[in-house]
Write a structure and sequence with these properties.
CATH class: Alpha Beta
Number of strands: 9
Radius of gyration: 16 Å
Helix content: 40-55%
Strand order of the largest sheet: 2-7-1-8-9
Strand content: 15-25%
CATH architecture: 3-Layer(aba) Sandwich
Bound molecules: adenosine-5'-diphosphate, guanosine-5'-monophosphate
Number of domains: 1
Number of helices: 7
């Protein structure tokens, strides 16, 4: 069976850290590269972090039904998973790993059903989440407060909608737990 693994989390909960760990341990897993209409940031390359398009190109592809799912995450900035990306990864016999926002994760689980295993990653508390965002030092104080406020509503929205909730407290424990649940899903 073609499989997909979905990771969603409020920003700062440790999603990228855990996804990168899982990908390094499982060569049979492959990261799904999303399409976006936002500008590349920093060193981002087309076809590596994202497939980059203009908003007009993106709208055209929506009209042509080329997406599994898409969202206007910020006004004017579209993000989505191309059907061709899913086919590309499955054709190699790999399972797909999605790193996607909470709403997108719920949508993908609905689309893929039993083929999918969805994991919600949560920090042990809102206070710890704030500390991690401060420690990561990639966002302004204002942006951090926005992300923390959004996290509370995302946690409420996510309740009961994911197959598994992983509390990322001690990192090694979280890595072990993630490996365990993913291995069990892959052999079933
Ligand atoms: P996300 O992708 O969910 O936004 P990151 O993976 O970037 O989050 O993690 C946010 C910050 O917290 C990073 O600086 C990361 O190194 C750190 N971090 C992640 N998990 C833990 C943990 N269990 N304990 C302490 N720090 C962590
Ligand atoms: P960023 O611009 O910081 O890379 O991503 C912004 C948001 O878009 C993040 O919450 C990210 O998870 C989400 N995102 C990335 N790819 C997709 C996608 O294919 N579909 C949806 N719905 N959201 C995405």
């Amino acid at each position: 069976m073609n499989k997909v693994i979905i990771f969603s989390a409020p920003s700062g909960a440790g999603k990228s850290t855990i996804v990168n760990h899982i990908l390094s341990k499982h060569p049979e897993l492959e990261f799904s590269i999303s399409a976006t209409s936002r500008q590349p940031r920093g060193q981002e390359r087309d076809g590596v972090e994202y497939y980059f398009f203009t908003a007009d190109e993106f709208r055209e592809m929506i009209a042509q039904d080329k997406f599994v799912e898409h969202e206007e995450v910020y006004p004017g900035s579209f993000y989505g998973t191309l059907k061709s990306e899913v086919d590309r990864i499955w054709s190699k016999g790999h399972a797909i790993v999605f790193d996607i926002d909470v709403q997108g994760g719920v949508n993908l689980k609905r689309i893929f059903g039993d083929q999918a295993f969805s994991v919600f990653i949560q920090a042990p508390s809102v206070e710890v989440l704030r500390e991690r965002l401060v420690g990561r030092a990639t966002d302004s104080a204002e942006a951090i407060e926005k992300r923390v406020a959004k996290a509370a509503s995302e946690m409420e929205f996510a309740a009961g909608k994911f197959d598994y909730v992983l509390i990322n407290d001690d990192l090694q424990t979280a890595f072990n737990e993630a490996e365990d649940i993913i291995s069990r899903f892959l052999i079933r």
